[in-house]
Amino acid sequence: MFRHALLTAVALSAIHIPASAEETFPAKLAGHAYLPALTLVTPPADAPRDAWVSGKFTGKTPNHVAMSAPGDVGAAYGSHPTGISLPFIGQPVQGMSGFAMNLADDGSIFTLTDNGFGSKINSPDALLFFHRMKPDFDTGIVERVETIFLRDPDRKVPFRIAYEATESRYLTGADFDPESIQYLNGEIWIGEEFGPYLLRAAEDGRIRDVYPTMLDGEELRGPDTPGTIVPAAAGKDFRVQRSGGYEGMGLQPGTDLLWAMLEKPLLADDGTPEGDFLRVITFDTQGGTWTGDSYKFRLAEGAKAIGDFNFIDETRALIIERDNGEGDPSLACTDDDKSACYPNPARVKNVVLVDTGRIDDEGFIHRIGHIDLMDIDDPDGKAILETQADRDLTGKFTFPFFTIEDVMRVDDTHILVANDNNLPFSGGREIGAAAHNEFILLEVGDLLAAR
After folding, report:
1. What dihedral angle (degrees, nearest 10) is formed by the CA atoms of 289, 290, 292, 298?
2. pLDDT in tens, 29-71
3. Cα separation of 261 and 264, whole Å?
4. Are strands 277-284 and 257-262 parallel, antiparallel or unpaired?
5. How many CB atoms lie within 10 A of CB 320?
6. How far apart are CA 189 and CA 183, in angstroms?
7. What whole-number distance in Å separates Cα of residue 47 and Cα of residue 68?
8. 278, 296 contact by CB (below 8 A)
C-alpha cells in the first residue's frame, strides 16, 4: 500500500507531446561484442529425450532429421536463406529477449531466451531457460556464464504442460513465451506473452508462482491462454492479441513494483484495438498482487511494438520501440526481385527515455526523448561486424534487426542494447546470413541526463 501511495504522490500532470516532436539525442558506439548465431546448449541430463533435438515441428510436418531443413527469413522479408538448418541437436541459445536491471553477484547480466520458434504449435520441444552472460568489449566475445532451465516440479503451473508426465517437468515453448526478466532478492520474475502471465521462480529455475493478469477487476486473456475455447470472439472472449503479452517489464527502484508492458494494444469489445497505445500494468512483488493501476505508452510514428523496458532511477526508464523491418534502408527493394534487397528494411529502431512520474490526464507516460539505433556514431571504429549496405557507413553504425529486445543502464553515460535473432529466421546485418546475438555498448550521456 505504501508503494502504491508513493507512486501516486510523485505522478505529475503533463501535456502530451507527439513523439515526432521530441528531441533525438546522439549515441556513440563504445563497444561491440557478439555470441555466434549457432550457439547451442545441452539439455539437462534428466530432460526428456525429445528435448535433445529441438525444432522438429517448425515445418508443415514433423521432421526428425537433424540439420536437414534450411532456415530463411520468410516470404515477407524476401525468403533469404540464413545458412542455418533445423532441427537442432541440442537447444539454441537464440537471441536475447530481455535484460534484468539488477546484476548477479559476480556482475553478470541476467538475460532471457523466449519460447523457441515463435508459437505454441512449433515449440513443444524447445526448453525454456534464462542465462547469466558477460560481454567483453575488449575481445568482442560474449561469455555465457550459466544457463538455467525453467521447471515446475511443485506443479505451480495452473494447466497441463507439454512434459506433464515427466518427473522433472521442464517447461517448453508450448507452455509459455517468456519475453521479459527481472532479478530481485534472489528471485527471478518473468513476463510472458501467451497468458499473459507473470512467473516467479527461484534462481535455480524452479517455478514458485504463476500469476494471471488482472486489469479493472477482470483477468486478461489471449487466444493462446489455456481455457480460451475456439471459436472465440476477439474483444469479448479475449482482449490480448496473439503475441501481444508482456514484451517489456521494468522493476521500479524504491517500490519494487513491476511495470509490465503489453507488446500490442488491447482489443475493444468490437475486436479492434482500443487505441494507438500500449497498456502498462503494475504488480506489487512483495504483496503478490496487481495494484489496480495501469498506464499508457504511445509509440512513435512507424513503430509497431516495444522490445524491452528498464528503469534507470526511481521514475525514469528506457523503452525500446521498433518497426517490423530488418536490413539497411539503402538496400530497400525497388522491383519484384527480392533476392538481393530488403522488402521491409529497418527504419524505426529507437531507445526512448520516459518519466513514469509524469502521467498526463489521459494516463499517458511522458516521453522525454530518444536515440536512433539506425544512426549511431562510430568515429573510433568500434564495430566488429560489417553491415551490408549500398551507402557509405564510414564513421556510422546501425542496428538493423527485426527484433531488438534488450536495454539496460550501465552507468551515468552508457547503456547496453542487444537483439533477439529469432534463430534461424532473421538476418539484418547481411543478406543470406543469420543474425548473431549482438551486444552493443552505447555512450548516451545526454539522453541519460535529460529530464
Report:
1. 160
2. 999 999 999 999 999 999 999 999 999 999 999 999 999 999 9
3. 9
4. antiparallel
5. 27
6. 6
7. 24
8. yes
Q: Which domains are seen in the chain, by residue range?
A: 2-449 (2.120.10)
- From residue 320, alpha-carbon distances to 135, 250, 278, 405 in Å are 20, 12, 13, 7
pLDDT digits (tens, 9 = 90+) for 83-120: 999 999 999 998 899 999 999 999 999 999 999 999 99
Q: How far apart are CA 343 and CA 368, in angstroms?
A: 32
Task: State if pTM tops 0.90.
Answer: yes
Which grid cell is 201? 521462480
* Three-class HEC string of the chain: CHHHHHHHHHCECCCCCCHHHCEECCCEEEEEEEECCCCEECCCCCCCHHHHEECCCCCCCCCCCCCCEEEECCHHHCCCEEEEEECEEEEECCCCCCECCCCCCCCCEEEECCCCCCCCCCCCCCECEEEEEEEECCCCEEEEEEEEECECCCCCCCCCCCCCCCCCCECECCCCCEEEEEEECCEEEEEECCCCEEEEEECCCEEEEEEECEECCEECCCCCCCCCCCCCCECCCECCCCCCCEEEEEEECCCCEEEEEECCCCECCCCCECCCEEEEEEEECCCCEEEEEEEEEECCCCCCEEEEEEECCCCEEEEEEECCCCCCHHHECCCCCCCCCECCCCCCEEEEEEEEEEECCCCEEEEEEEEECCCEECCCCCCCCCCCCCCCCCCEECCCCCEEEEEEECCCCEEEEEEECCCCCCCCCCCCCCCCEEEEEEECHHHHHCC
Task: For cell 502521467, name the residue.
Answer: 359
User: CA separation (Å) from 95 to 80, 130, 312, 434?
Assistant: 19, 11, 23, 11
- For residue 21, which amino acid is it? A
Whether omega for the bond prior to residue 343 falls within 30 degrees of 0, making it cis, is no
